[in-house]
Amino acid sequence: MEHVKIYDTTLRDGTQGESVNFSKIDKLRIAQKLDEYGVDYIEGGWPGSNPKDMGFFEEAQKLELKHAKIAAFGSTRRAKNTVENDPNIQTLLEANTPVCTIFGKTWLLHVLEVLRVTEQDNIDMIYDSVKYLRENGREVIYDAEHFFDGYKDSPEYALKTLQAAVDGGAAAVVLCDTNGGTLPTEATEICRNVKEMLPQNVDLGMHTHNDGSLAVANALAGVEAGARHVQGTINGVGERCGNVDLISVIANLQLKMKFNCIPDNKVSKLTELSRFIDDLANLDPNIRQPFVGQSAFAHKGGIHVNAVQKVAHSYEHIQPELVGNRQRILVSDLSGGSNILMKAAEHNIDIEGNSEEVRKILAELKRLESEGYEFEAAGASFELLMRKHLEKLDTSFQLNGFRVIVEKRGHHSPTLSEATVKVIVGGETEISAAEGDGPVNALDLALRKALSRFYPEISEMSLRDYKVRILDGESGTAAKTRVLITSMDNDSRWSTVGVSENLIEASWRALVDSVEYKLYKICNTK
What we know:
Blueprint: E1 5-8, H1 24-37, E2 41-45, H2 51-60, E3 69-75, H3 87-94, E4 99-105, H4 108-115, H5 119-135, E5 139-145, H6 147-153, H7 155-168, E6 172-177, H8 184-197, E7 203-208, H9 215-224, E8 229-232, H10 246-256, H11 264-267, H12 270-281, E9 298-299, H13 302-310, E10 328-329, H14 337-346, H15 356-370, H16 379-390, E11 398-407, E12 416-425, E13 428-436, H17 439-451, E14 462-470, E15 481-488, E16 493-500, H18 503-523
Parallel strand pairs: 1-2, 1-8, 2-3, 3-4, 4-5, 5-6, 6-7, 7-8, 9-10
Antiparallel strand pairs: 11-12, 12-13, 14-15, 15-16
Helix pairs in contact: 1-2, 1-12, 5-7, 6-7, 8-9, 13-14, 17-18
């Protein structure tokens, strides 16, 4: 298969996205991970723009990368400087990377109104910068900023800027849709025109932004028109609406267009890579992200579920496992019997297709959802619901009562939360109290403390996430509230749900489900 070079700019362009920030250690870890996945280039940052980026380049020289080349990013020389005395150019050399990527102006609007230099001055700046870096032993990649807008404004001048980079010795010229407003039809036509003027030893590249929600489409259009170099970020992080998502680019190119981007055995780990980047960026994964999102292969409507149960690809464009994802069956008031059967199979629960139990579970599901429950993100609560119907599952404990006290003793004093819980386990009554950071945390600690004498393994679990949603805002402070809790232990993570007009009660219901799920696991592994 023909190779398309993958150029990752998560560590530079990606960090320009809102709420995206990486430490130097994070950047080094990401660079190692990207190298493991077989990307061709890793753009580490703009040396000289901040100490963190220069520190990364210093440490990156110690990395034993097996495939990727580290690239330092910067601009062409300034109009009043020579390359020898231009700080930006000299800092690029000081980064001591095998690759230097520089951007220059293509659009006359920027040349004349932003830089305020002549057309020829801009051409000279591009040529001098590329040539100087090339003569100093660097592989040079030239990013033609605003290329598509510049080409539509003046095709002749836009092509002249590319020719200056080629004449200077650029290994690749990259067409940047910097404003993200190009259409795929335009991208295809323009790329073909550029490809015709490039010598065979110069790669044509694409760098697309997602302002028109077309970044992936434009990148693929560029490849179809002859580009063999694609720049982007993992998960599409980046300024404004983001860069092109390399996850989708790689999956489409490798699985559908039959190009080679990364080793075949790494494509099935794209979901893992996506989660890794989100974790280090401290971002919640986009559940609707194509290919790797939690909802990418999730089915909810009864007709859809019935179809995928018989023929998976009837509603799935690829096998989820090809990218490391999995099929998920959701349950809601839209569900039919097929949803229940497939959800039961997920949890190794035997159930007959036309049984009375299926009808009872569906009826209970619809009743609870009419009260505000949703089980799509609360799989543990739904599994408990099924098992209580099918296995007559006994609860591990009974609540005798709980009390929560929230107290503040002065304007500047902290708010104190204390909970007392009274439960019955196997005929024995246990009372326990605990203080917490808030009322729910205090309840959680008190409940697990009360159960720990009977189930020591309960200490393994912890509450990892807590989300509250107001279901009927027009009711104001009397509104019904849905609470979603995520818990985890040493080897798994699960989510539960509770609903009530009282926030503490809703939280308690979700907490009880979470603890009962853990206790069910304990009892069934002994």
